[in-house]
Amino acid sequence: MQSLWRRRIHKLGYAACFLNIMAGSVVGPMLVIWGTDNAAPDTMRVVVTEAIPGIGAMGSVMGSVPPAAL
Predict the structure, then answer these.
(1) Which residue ranges run through the membrane (predicted)?
(2) 1-60, pLDDT tens digit by residue?
(3) Distance between CA atoms of residues 56 and 48, nearest Å
(4) Which of 9, 13, 31, 45 could bridge across to 39 with cysteines, CB 3.0–4.6 Å?
């Protein structure tokens, strides 16, 4: 009984990974477009275009730090 339950949870986690990747691949470019459309002069638009992925990369760095180190 327990091994059947673990297999089901494993399959749900596998499906959740695919759903997360599908949603995440759409949100990133939409945030960049939204940020650059709201930036006024061209020089500010260039800075915003490079800053948004940089801020997103900080999230992956924070996710790689083990909780005990915080």
Answers:
(1) 12-34
(2) 567 667 777 778 788 888 888 877 788 788 888 888 988 898 999 999 889 888 888 878
(3) 12
(4) 45
